[in-house]
């Protein structure tokens, strides 16, 4: 899938160092995913997609799914690419995958991440609960959000 100059494609093990670099830049003061965590997600067969501009990884998203439900594990976009539709394209790709298996999907999002919350609400998610001190070590709270199954 191509959006403007951005192309979406399967995330590869070769992308992992850049994923970790993006994690460090986007989540200072938190516990960013390690390279091993990304390798493990890919090795376990979870669905991960990258967003590429001129061959460079600028964002990624990941999803775990079972026959009963799915969980968005991560969506991240480099700061200078935020607000340009990359996160929305990544989310829509994940949701298309979820809709193929017709299951509900869940995620956690920082309560102060208003752009992400607005994007999730616009794509059929609703607030389900609050997880106090979910993100560590900062202790930031997270909303649990969910979207019911949608048949294609």
UniProtKB/TrEMBL annotation:
Molecular function in Gene Ontology: protein-N-terminal-alanine acetyltransferase activity
InterPro entries documented for this protein: AcTrfase_RimI/Ard1, Acyl_CoA_acyltransferase, Bact_Acetyltransf, GNAT_dom
Chief localisation class: cytoplasm
Subcellular location: Cytoplasm
Recorded catalytic activity of this chain's protein: N-terminal L-alanyl-[ribosomal protein bS18] + acetyl-CoA = N-terminal N(alpha)-acetyl-L-alanyl-[ribosomal protein bS18] + CoA + H(+)
Pfam (any one): Acetyltransf_1
Keyword terms: Acyltransferase, Cytoplasm, Ribonucleoprotein, Ribosomal protein, Transferase
Keyword Transferase: yes
Main enzyme class: transferase
Keyword Cytoplasm: yes
A single cellular component GO annotation: ribosome
Enzyme Commission number(s): 2.3.1.266
Protein's job: Acetylates the N-terminal alanine of ribosomal protein bS18.
Family classification: Belongs to the acetyltransferase family. RimI subfamily.
Name the record gives this protein: [Ribosomal protein bS18]-alanine N-acetyltransferase
């Amino acid at each position: 899938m191509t959006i403007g100059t951005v192309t979406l494609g399967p995330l590869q093990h070769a992308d992992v160092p850049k994923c970790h670099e993006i994690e460090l830049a986007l989540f200072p003061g938190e516990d960013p995913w390690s390279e091993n965590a990304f390798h493990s997600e890919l090795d376990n067969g979870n669905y991960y997609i990258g967003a590429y501009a001129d061959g460079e990884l600028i964002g990624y998203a990941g999803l775990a799914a079972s026959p009963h439900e799915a969980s968005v594990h991560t969506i991240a976009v480099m700061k200078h690419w935020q607000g340009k539709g990359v996160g929305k394209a990544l989310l829509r790709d994940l949701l298309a995958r979820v809709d193929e298996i017709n299951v509900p999907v869940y995620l956690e999002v920082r309560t102060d991440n208003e752009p992400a919350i607005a994007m999730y609400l616009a794509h059929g998610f609703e607030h389900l609960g609050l997880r106090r001190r979910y993100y560590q070590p900062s202790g930031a709270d997270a909303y649990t959000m969910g979207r019911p199954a949608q048949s294609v």
